[in-house]
Amino acid sequence: MLKETLYSSGKNRFEGDRFSDKEWSAPTMVDAPEIRARIESFRLEGRVIRSMKLVGSAIFHTREMLEDTVYGALEQEGITDEEELRERSRYEAIGPDRLFARACATGAPLLISFEDYDRFEIDMPQAGEYRLGMNCIPWSVQPERQLQNVDANVLFKPCLGKRIEKAEVCAYVTDKDPMTGDHYMLYQDDRPGTRELVSRIVLHLEDGIRFVMETCLADSNSFFCEDAEGKNLTIPFRELKKGLYNWEDLHLDPDSGFMAESTTVFFGEQGRKWVDGDTISFIPEDGRSRLMIQSDDFHLLYWALSWQVRDWFDEMDDYVFPWEEWQEILNKADRLAAFETFDELFDFLTGLGITYGHGEDVFLYTLTNACGREYWENRREIRKQVRNLRRWTEMVVPKGMNMLVHGY
Questions:
Q1: Contact 178, 127 (CB under 8 A)
Q2: Which one of 129, 139, 381, 397 is least enclosed by Cβ atoms within 10 Å?
Q3: Beta strands in 285-407 (DSSP E)
Q4: CB within 8 A of 71, min separation 6: which ones?
Q5: Is 257 helix (H, G, I), strand (E, B) or coil?
Q6: Closest CA relative to residue 240, chosen from 400, 374, 66, 51
Q7: By the 8 A CB rule, do 198 and 130 touch?
Q8: For residue 3, what pLDDT is reported?
Q9: 273 found inside a domain
């Protein structure tokens, strides 16, 4: 672990709204008095927690890990039959009243937003090391790598709306490195010595609730709620499930059973909640299913739809396309996705001669501004999006049925 504070050269300029450890300006600290002083500088006491957000994936909240947790709990309850254990621990079979700890482990920061919209940020890269910030990471930031898979507002609901009565920095004195177990060597002359390390930071809330922040698994963050006696608070699965955002929760169509491969295609209530921003929906005439794509990922389909209607496609309007015409749109999207160079795509679309208003080319603006660059940089993902849209159409839109494209 570090022997002294490591200062960051980051400027909090998160490109594409994606979190980056290197771009975050918060220093990495190990000295307990320094950590206490930084916590005190944030003046957390008296603030009311408005919202909470994990900037990454929760390790034990994937479907597989939740099933493992239930499997272990059933064993502790005395069930020994292997077939029964496997069956009752399946995600779909987890009972609505099964209790889980209001806790999570993650390798990414936690954001806590207060009533005045100030944001407290915390990450613990290794045991004894703390990165603490205030108003550095934007609330809109997205995970750098792994999908955010649990809603912290659901998991830590007892903390919301509560006033912080005390921010406690808990420390201990040791002569061992918590990462290696080796004897700690004094930085000045490399002699064996002791040091004071922080074990956890605790927010004491009104009503006796505590929100605890500490390291687990040596290099991950552990966040959890406990009562005044130190007992973990729990959440029934029927409530926890509302806050889970694993791949199946976001990209599986519950009506048809279709599973999207593209990260840009969403289904269901969980998918709708996950998508942040303006969304275009594709809805078969019978209304049984709905596929959603965020407007930021809609460039190729915008061009295909504009080509079809021979005009500027209004993303805020609603359109109804007969089955035959919808097939033409999908074919157009396939054709546009097949271009191997951006220049070929540009020349083809601007060569269609489709204009609007005072004769402006429908495609020229979106091709030459950021949309064109964003599409080309993400074209492999968008090609998967078009393939997914076609396969889903084959499952839910029989010949003769109209397709509604619903704007935001």
A1: yes
A2: 139
A3: 291-294, 318-321, 355-356, 360-361, 403-406
A4: 85, 86, 89
A5: coil
A6: 66
A7: yes
A8: 80
A9: yes
- Joined together, the tokens standing for residue 300 give 């190729």
In this structure, the answer to whether residues 25 and 154 fall within a common structural domain is yes
158 token code pair? 């007892």
Q: Which residues contact 60 (CB under 8 A, 6 or more apart)?
A: 66, 69, 104, 105
> What one-letter code names the amino acid at 363?
F
Are 162 and 207 contacting, i.e. CB atoms less than 8 angstroms apart?
Answer: yes
Are the beta carbons of 192 and 176 closer than 8 angstroms? Answer: no
pLDDT digits (tens, 9 = 90+) for 357-387: 777 888 888 888 768 888 898 888 899 999 9
- Give the burial class of 404: count Cβ atoms within 10 A of its Cβ; 0-12 exposed, 13-18 middle, 19 or more buried: middle
Q: Could you read off the pLDDT of 141-151 as tens digits, one per residue?
A: 888 766 788 99
Domain, as residue range, for 114? 15-242
Q: For residues 171 and 234, state if they share a domain.
A: yes
The tokens describing 406, both together, are: 């619903």
Q: Are 70 and 89 in contact (CB under 8 A)?
A: yes
Q: Mapping DSSP to helix (H, G, I), strand (E, B) and coil, where does residue 298 land? A: coil
- Residue 282's closest CA among 366, 375, 399, 397? 397
Sheet of 49-54, strand order: 28-29, 130-134, 119-123, 110-114, 49-54
Using CB atoms within 10 A of its CB, is residue 309 exposed (0-12), middle (13-18) or buried (19+)?
Answer: middle
Q: DSSP per residue over 151-196, as a string?
A: -HHHHTGGGTTPBEEEEEEEEEEESB-TTT-PBPB-TTT--B--EE
Question: SS3 of 251, please?
Answer: helix
